[in-house]
Q: What sequence folds into this?
């Protein structure tokens, strides 16, 4: 998911360079949403990560 966020960010930068502000704005918004979702998933995986077997 982080990969797609970076891809949409690059699309936004290229679209902005060519002056297509509507496409750049939408791509930047999608990149922002995907980045937030990726960060939430990363935090959840750290909090509820797998633990090793109990030591007796």
A:
């Amino acid at each position: 998911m982080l990969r797609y966020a970076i891809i949409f960010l690059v699309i936004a930068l290229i679209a902005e360079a060519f002056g297509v502000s509507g496409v750049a704005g939408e791509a930047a918004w999608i990149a922002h949403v995907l980045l937030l979702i990726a960060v939430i998933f990363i935090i959840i995986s750290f909090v509820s990560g797998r633990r090793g077997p109990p030591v007796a």
User: Anything to note?
Assistant: The chain has a mean pLDDT of 89.
